[in-house]
């Protein structure tokens, strides 16, 4: 067991290539699956097992396309402590830490180095209020589902993020995001 752990543990940090996720009803009849291709891995530069990379290429993984168009691994929320807390509870099946430091350690452990709560970030742009009001200020309309439901709100959070990102130069947005990394609304 320890030998297997010593092999896979370092690779988890080095090889963010692809992840699949399926959610299902308890009887398995109703399910949804997603495949995420990450841009973090560079097949020309990163440490790798050439046989594994060759195998993945034969299976249709296009590393150049992933590098150019894959997703970055970061998280955006709007008034995020609840969303993050629910996800941590689902993933661990355990009670949340009673201390703020303990909770934030779990957030960092589960969601990585980049977590942003847009409810705090939007203030830099002179916006405030709820997600619906911020979206209206940016002339964004709900494109799928109903407002105030998790799926449509999640999509709107991403749309707000990229709308804000388009309002300033990349360096300026990076500075703004650095200021608000792990600053969750109501907790910091």
Q: How does this structure look, described?
A:
It is a single chain. The chain is mainly alpha-helical and 188 residues long. 48% of the residues lie in helices and 11% in strands. It is built from 9 helices and 4 strands; from the N terminus they run H-E-E-H-H-E-H-H-E-H-H-H-H. The strands form 2 sheets. A two-stranded antiparallel sheet has the order 1-2. A two-stranded parallel sheet has the order 3-4. The protein is globular. The relative contact order is 0.11.
Layout of secondary structure:
Layout: H1 2-14, E1 18-24, E2 31-37, H2 50-58, H3 63-69, E3 75-77, H4 81-92, H5 100-111, E4 115-117, H6 118-121, H7 131-137, H8 150-165, H9 170-180
Parallel strand pairs: 3-4
Antiparallel strand pairs: 1-2
Q: Enumerate the strands of the largest sheet in spatial order, edge to edge or round the barrel.
A: 1-2
The number of helices is 9
Helix-and-strand structural type? mainly alpha
Percent helix range: 40-55%
Helices and strands, in order, run as HEEHHEHHEHHHH
Spans of 5+ residues with little confidence (pLDDT < 50)? none
**Shape verdict:** globular
- Percent of sequence in beta strands: 5-15%
List keywords for this structure.
188 residues; mainly alpha; two-stranded antiparallel sheet; 4 strands; 48% helix; globular
Summary of the model, kept short:
The chain is mainly alpha-helical and 188 residues long. It has helices at 2-14, 50-58, 63-69, 81-92, 100-111, 118-121, 131-137, 150-165, 170-180; strands at 18-24, 31-37, 75-77, 115-117. Strands 1-2 form a two-stranded antiparallel sheet. Strands 3-4 form a two-stranded parallel ribbon.
């Amino acid at each position: 067991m320890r030998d297997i752990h010593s092999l896979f543990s370092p690779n988890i940090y080095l090889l963010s290539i692809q992840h699949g996720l399926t959610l299902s009803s308890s009887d398995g009849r109703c399910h949804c699956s997603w495949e995420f291709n990450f841009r973090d891995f560079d097949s020309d530069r990163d440490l790798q097992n050439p046989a594994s990379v060759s195998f993945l290429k034969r299976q249709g993984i296009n590393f150049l396309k992933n590098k150019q168009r894959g997703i970055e691994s970061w998280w955006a929320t709007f008034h995020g402590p609840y969303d993050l807390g629910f996800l941590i509870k689902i993933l661990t099946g355990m009670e949340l830490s009673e201390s703020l430091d303990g909770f934030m350690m779990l957030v960092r452990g589960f969601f990585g180095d980049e977590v942003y709560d847009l409810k705090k970030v939007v203030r830099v742009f002179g916006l405030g209020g709820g997600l619906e009001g911020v979206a209206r200020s940016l002339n964004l309309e709900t494109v799928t589902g109903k407002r105030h439901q998790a799926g449509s709100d999640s999509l709107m959070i991403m749309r707000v993020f990229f709308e804000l990102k388009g309002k300033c130069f990349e360096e300026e947005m990076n500075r703004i995001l650095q200021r608000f990394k792990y600053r969750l609304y109501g907790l910091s």
